[in-house]
Amino acid sequence: ALIRAVAVLIVTCPCALGLAVPAVQIVASARLFRRGVLVKSGAALERLAEIDHVIFDKTGVLTEGRPSLIETSATIIAMAAPLARASNHPMSRTVARTAGDGPVAAEVVEHPGLGVEGLIDGRRARLGRAAFVGAPTLRSVETELWFGFDDGPK
Length: 154
Known about the structure:
It holds the Pfam family Hydrolase. The protein is about 40% helix and about 15% strand. The chain has about 150 residues and is α+β, with helices and mostly antiparallel strands. Helix 1 (about 1-10) packs antiparallel against helix 2 and helix 5 packs across helix 6.
């Protein structure tokens, strides 16, 4: 039935590719997702054809998709958790999972590529890259996640 419906739409549509491309992108993305690969957009899926080499980092984030926390304290995890619970970023999800259930920050705004900010008990807080939080940028081989209130990073 689905094949017939698609066939009718393609025949009656003046621009068959206008229907075919999104349908193929959805099916391909779903198949990749079942195999553990998350495609961010249709454009990213189309750009896969241009890839000659794939380089994975040594932390395993690209291969496992489950970041882990190292060199942190339970106090900092508890302080950052309200912001982390409000975000869907894999790093935030790791912090939220480690901290467990609890309150969620208010007025949360995600800044793609930088981090997330919001109010925790009335204080403005940020979770993300060092520069976004206001911490000195270090040259580390590990992915770093910083947390801080407006009065200073942690």
